[in-house]
Give the backbone structure.
Amino acid sequence: MMQLSESLQDYLEKILALESSNKVARVKEIAEAMGVLQGSVTSALKTLSSKGLINYEPYSFITLTPKGKKLAQEVTRRHAVIKDFLGNVLQLEAENAEANACRIEHAIDRIAIDRLVQFIDYLNNCPRTGPDWIASFTNYCKTEAMDAQKCKTCLKQCKDDFQTTD
Amino acid sequence: MMQLSESLQDYLEKILALESSNKVARVKEIAEAMGVLQGSVTSALKTLSSKGLINYEPYSFITLTPKGKKLAQEVTRRHAVIKDFLGNVLQLEAENAEANACRIEHAIDRIAIDRLVQFIDYLNNCPRTGPDWIASFTNYCKTEAMDAQKCKTCLKQCKDDFQTTD
DNA sequence: GGCGAAAGTTTGATATACCAAACTTATATT
DNA sequence: AATATAAGTTTGGTATATCAAACTTTCGCC
């Protein structure tokens, strides 16, 4: 499709978020969300507009075109998937998961994201893993040890749980 | 520590690889490895040299300083961990795992990488998961279905395997 | 309606990273 | 040792993304 710079992808993402909450986006809000000055936003908006991704007239509000919205949603989805993995699988703190997701969303391609979605799904729903396996991973992160006896008990519990809820 | 641009981190990474195989790195080889022209390499080398990360004299070969080597090894480790996860856990094709790792290595921080290492380790060694669980995930990716009966069999097999190898 | 503040834009500057092409140095061969 | 060629460097230019500060437009309020 169209290869946008990381920066422009970020602008689209913020514009979508503002559009979702406020109907439209304004330069000042985008600048605050991006942590840049308003002048930088105006430059970016011109570029996005020239690529047909936003509706932009000087001194007016900003909305996404259908094309821009689709792209913004893709970026937002990548962000959400990665944050989910980092926060709910790796059990990173929310702030850290967010910070890493912001960067990784630009570095990962469609094939990898789609597979990651499948992985998270499988991990959550396979009876051999699921939420209690993730909890046991969290515990492992604290203790750094695997104990054969504990594993045996854990495994038995896991099997019993699945058989009874069957 | 010192925040290097993605590009300079890539240069360090390539220089380490060349140093490992050839003792020293040369401009031409770095240019080939990076996919840029030699003139671009010379510019980057000056910057790396000014930051005390490489030993560089015009028209001579290049080696890493201890500081540069440490940084290069960190980048290389991040790369290897991510490639391992993408290739051996998510089961992406080697080329795709490599391409994504090249980009993600610059986007992920130490906390996330360290946790990912723990996760891969736990996934490989926990009796509830391990290589056969990953194989069952790979199979799931093809079929996109979870079957309670299959799960029951899979879980029983998993438990039996662990008990006998105990 | 006019005016002041807030919002938005423009301009000129900086920094990074790259290329193309001219130029310099090193080397390899005879 | 001379010279052609390969390797390395320099120069000038492009593109992106940002800031600071001057400038313009819009909008609310009296």
Q: What stands out?
A: Strands of chain A lie at 54-56, 62-64. Chain A has eight helices and two strands.
